Amino acid sequence: MGRQNEIQGHLFAFITIFIWGTTFISTKILLDVLTPIEILFLRFAIGFLVLLLIYPNRLKAKESIHELYFAGAGLSGVTLYYLLENIALTYTFASNVGVIISIAPFFTAIFAHRFLDGERLKIQFFAGFLIAVTGIFIISFHGSSSLKINPFGDILAVVAAVVWAAYSILTKKISGFQYNTIQATRRIILYGLVFMVPALFIFGFKPSLNELLTPAHLFNILFLGLAASALCFVTWNSAVKILGAVKTSIYIYMVPVITVVTSVIVLQEKMTGASVFGIVLTLTGLFISERKKQEKRD
Questions:
Q1: Which pTM value belongs to this model?
Q2: Domain count along the chain
Q3: pLDDT tens-digit readout, 52-94
Q4: Are 69 and 61 in contact (CB under 8 A)?
């Protein structure tokens, strides 16, 4: 892998995580007028239409089994992950979910070791994982007097982390099929929307257009659809294709860091000394986990 391609892969991963780390603001605003399932379906429907306009060429599967990989990625990375995460938030604290979701790279590494060639576990990864998770806990619970345990919601969050790890492995497999990244991402999102339809009947889908078309709400749903769905799923899948599932997933550690920083800037929340310390630990863990392959080349 060329140095320039690797830098591009890291840039794609960072852009993705930076945007995903700020989406909580848009989601929070939209929850005033939309349900979680309405937000999910609308954002990915917008994302699909945008990718269709950008690259309208129809994807033709080279082998029938490839469709199963696309379907699996859509079910895991689009439908199940976001539904599990949102349902978990109704049963447990957002801080709990934030911490638990951030351990997805650990599951990704285990799955990659089991199902992918050339992505073996290294001691540096586990060291970085422990340091990063410690930082994430400090960031998430610095304002809490005690750790609140809500078994059902926390279990759902763990399942969501496992599901995202499965998505990372599936997208790495798909990248080996040599399809156009935009076409492949669009097919994945299409399957995600299809699998989301039963949830629309269960949870209901009656978005208020009058509320949705107000400037603030329209801006935020477009941000989620254009940036967080269309752009980010393409850049994330591109990063996985270049860097591999394990190396890319490590960037998930940065989500709580970006969330804290953006909440200070946008919501004027105060950053405590504990938050700063947690951010430093998380970034240190990210660097250590990433460093292993750098050293191997030296």
A1: 0.80
A2: 1
A3: 999 999 898 889 999 999 999 999 999 999 888 878 877 766 6
A4: no
Report the C-alpha gap between 219 and 237 in whole angstroms. Answer: 25
Range of the domain at 107: 3-297
Cα–Cα distance measured from residue 234 to residue 230, given in angstroms and rounded to the nearest whole number:
7
DSSP letter (8 states) at residue 145: S
